[in-house]
Design brief:
Low-confidence stretches of chain A: 227-232, 237-243
Order of helices and strands of chain B: HHHHEEEEE
Structural class of chain B: alpha+beta
Oligomer: heterodimer
Number of strands of chain A: 0
Distance between the termini of chain A: 66 Å
Largest sheet of chain B: 5 strands, antiparallel
Radius of gyration of chain A: 28 Å
Number of helices of chain A: 25
Largest interface: A-B, 54 and 34 residues
Shape of chain A: elongated
Strand content of chain A: under 5%
Shape of chain B: elongated
Mean pLDDT of chain B: 93
Largest sheet of chain A: none
Chain lengths: 554, 156
């Protein structure tokens, strides 16, 4: 399992810092590597079946394969030699960078080939655990050597050797080969653990290479590629859970990336190095949106939890994803009846379970009690206090992830509650319930900042046609209609508008909600003062209204 | 504004993270770092004027496209871009034009006329072949093409 593989990686990492080698081992390692390089150079593209057994014999003679401990030391010393080679060669100005690289890569690739062959041939053909344990140990050693190098070199640290070792090792282990295919899942898991250990927050000097590793087309393809059948099944809730651990792994790596970027993006001061990483992140999201939209659909919740509220376009990329087999009705169709769409009765699949973010357990209990009994009224003010008190992030006054979880949880409970009465959610059935009490209370009781976060949490659910999109679209419009102050209406408008004035893509549910707001005379949208507060705002509304193809109300 | 929750001064930890990113920015990964070694045509990025093509033509990775290339181009791709998809497509296009690969001489042969002799093991006659050392087409009369050297895998 995964805990086993991380234990081996951990072990390897510790070994990476161990220098208490038996005498002569360094020389033996150097000798054996040189021998291997000669064998490899003779036929770099062939699988050296016969020569390899001769080589294994040599390793045995040198006593390398005697114990696990010696093998690990051999790998550590070899990895360090590769790294030292890079540090020696890279500053060489007398040769072109591509020549220097070609030489380096020849050596590193040979070393990687040796690892692959040792993994492949350790134990008999069916010894899956032996092979994966060895692989995890090697990856742990690479991580250990990297971390130490990063600590020691600080700003002189180079990503190159580790980047090359990891990507080549990954590609070689994913080559078509019956033995390697039999351990494909443990291989993927081992690399995911390795990349998580090397996340930019822990190893910022490796961030660019890290992004290249996690966005490599073969890595994405292996982790996210499923049969079309599985893809169709995953978009909605009531489907069998298939073996798709790869999706969870990949979601974790993306969250690692967003978390690293968050403090820099939040301040909207993008220095060149951050801007480059941000641009790369947007590209990865575009690829995912195009090739694996079901993946973004399923994990949107966790991503929105860690993306700063001001990153509107980045979030829109995620929220615009919709299942590939679905045809979205054009939001600009006059008299589009959302209520009659079949999809709006289906709940979207959301991973992982967001309920666990509602903490502490006593608060969850109180929340459930209130949803059931609509009492005590004092609970309503308890929500705000809990969110404020449990906030531990600098620069935030609210526990955003608790707020997001409450909003989605109350919404899903509301849908169930309405259904249990044999009704369907719409602007009238959602009203006058414990659920709506909570939402109305939050919109009135919170200050501007809290309300902004609250309305964002709702807007994050306005996506492709599904039961959440429909419910939260109705809720937002209801909150607008029932607002006791124009400040609330202005903020609702702001949250919708700021997600629409950025470049495409725009989530379907967001467009539907905004069009309804400006089109339906019941909301008297054009009568509000904030629409006319400044000439440029007024112009903006008119242009959005024009692009929504509706006539401005007189 | 662009930071609706107001800016927050970066913590010491974040400042360190930025410094490390900044130094990594000075030696970014090179496109070739995550590719197989290209022995003859290594990547050599440089900026070219915008009015030149910045990317390949659409569908230039299809067999149809390769079939429109000259045989010399196909031979170049075959010998200088080993292990690439382009090499595979070039081999496929050459086969479609009745070139056959000789695995001992490592050269491509095409019948110049109907072989004078054909049996189970070989055929014999006049052939055109491409000499990669002299880099040109040559003619060979009375050549024996042994079938055991014929590369006849199905490329699909």
């Amino acid at each position: 399992g995964s805990s086993n593989s991380s234990a081996h990686i951990q072990h390897g990492m510790l070994q990476g810092r161990d220098f208490d080698d038996p005498p002569g081992l360094l020389e033996k390692t150097e000798y054996l590597l040189k021998e291997w390089l000669t064998i490899y150079s003779a036929a770099p593209n062939r699988d050296p079946g016969k020569t390899f057994s001769v080589y294994i014999h040599q390793m045995n003679v040198q006593g390398i394969l005697k114990s696990d401990d010696i093998i690990t030391r051999f790998f550590r010393l070899s990895t360090q030699m590769m790294v030292e080679l890079c540090y020696r060669q890279i500053p060489d100005q007398s040769q072109s960078p591509s020549t220097v690289r070609a030489k380096l890569f020849h050596t590193i690739d040979a070393y990687v080939k040796l690892i692959v062959l040792l993994v492949k041939h350790s134990g008999d053909a069916t010894a899956i655990t032996t092979k994966t344990n060895l692989l995890n140990k090697v990856l742990g050693i690479v991580v250990g050597v990297l971390l130490q190098d990063h600590d020691v070199q600080v700003t002189d640290f180079h990503q190159l050797p580790y980047h090359r070792i990891l990507i080549t090792l990954f590609l070689d282990l994913n080559a078509p080969d019956p033995v390697l295919e039999s351990i494909n899942y443990p291989i993927l898991a081992a690399f995911c653990h390795t990349f998580h250990l090397l996340r930019p927050r822990k190893v910022p000097g490796f961030a660019y290479a890290w992004l290249e590793l996690i966005s490599h087309r073969i890595f994405i393809g292996r982790l996210l590629g499923l049969t079309p059948q599985q893809k169709r099944q995953r978009a909605y809730d009531q489907t069998p859970v298939t073996d798709v651990q790869g999706w969870n792994f990949y979601a974790q790596l993306l969250i690692d990336l967003f978390k690293y970027l968050a403090p820099f993006l939040r301040n909207a001061e993008l220095a060149k190095p951050v801007h480059l990483l941000y641009k790369g992140t947007l590209r990865v999201l575009l690829i995912l949106l195009h090739d694996f939209p079901e993946f973004l659909c399923e994990f949107h919740y966790g991503f929105c939890d860690v993306i700063p509220p001001n990153c509107i376009q980045m979030r829109n990329l995620i929220l615009s994803a919709f299942p590939r087999n679905m045809r979205l009705p054009d939001p600009f169709t006059p008299n589009l009846k959302v209520d009659v769409l079949q999809e709006i009765s289906l709940a979207p699949k959301i991973s992982p379970d967001f309920q666990c973010y509602i903490q502490p357990p006593s608060f969850k209990k109180d929340l459930d009690l209130y949803l059931k009994t609509r009492a005590p009224v004092t609970f309503l003010s308890e929500i705000r206090t809990t969110m404020q008190q449990s906030c531990c992030e600098p620069g935030m006054r609210y526990n955003l992830s608790l707020l997001n979880a409450i909003v989605l949880y109350v919404g899903t409970q509301a849908i169930q509650h309405i259904r249990s009465k044999g009704l369907v959610p719409n602007t009238s059935t959602i009203a006058h319930s414990a659920h709506m009490d909570i939402f109305q209370n939050l919109s009135v009781d919170l200050d501007t900042e809290g309300r902004y976060l609250f309305l964002n949490a709702i807007a994050n659910q306005l996506r492709f046609p599904n039961s959440h999109t429909h419910y939260f679209s109705c809720t937002l419009l209801y909150l607008f209609a029932e607002a006791n102050s124009e400040a609330i209406q202005e903020q609702i408008t702001r949250v919708l508008l700021e997600r629409l004035i950025v470049n495409r893509p725009h989530p379907w549910g967001l467009l539907i909600t905004f069009i309804e707001l400006i089109k339906n005379p019941a909301y008297k949208f054009w009568n509000h003062e904030f629409v006319h507060c400044a000439p440029e705002i007024e112009k903006l509304f008119e242009s959005v209204a024009r692009s929504c193809m509706v006539h401005k109300q007189p | 504004g662009v930071a609706p929750l107001g800016p927050v001064p970066l913590s010491k930890d974040h400042q360190f993270q930025f410094t490390m990113l900044e130094s990594a920015f000075l030696h970014l990964p090179h496109p070739s770092d995550s590719e197989r070694i290209k022995l003859y045509l290594p990547r050599n990025p440089c900026s070219t004027p915008h009015y030149y093509n910045q990317g390949p033509l659409p569908h230039s990775d299809s067999l149809e496209f390769f079939q429109r290339l000259s045989t010399e181009t196909l031979f170049f791709i075959f010998y200088y871009m080993e292990g690439s998809k382009a090499q595979y497509l070039a081999a496929k296009a050459l086969k479609k034009q009745s070139w056959r690969f000789h695995t001992k001489y490592m050269m491509w042969f095409q019948r110049h006329e109907e072989p004078k002799l054909i049996n189970e093991e070989y055929e014999q006659g006049t052939y055109i072949y491409f000499d990669y050392e002299k880099w040109g087409q040559r003619k060979k009369e009375g050549f024996t093409f042994e079938y055991k050297y014929l590369e006849d895998r199905e490329l699909n």
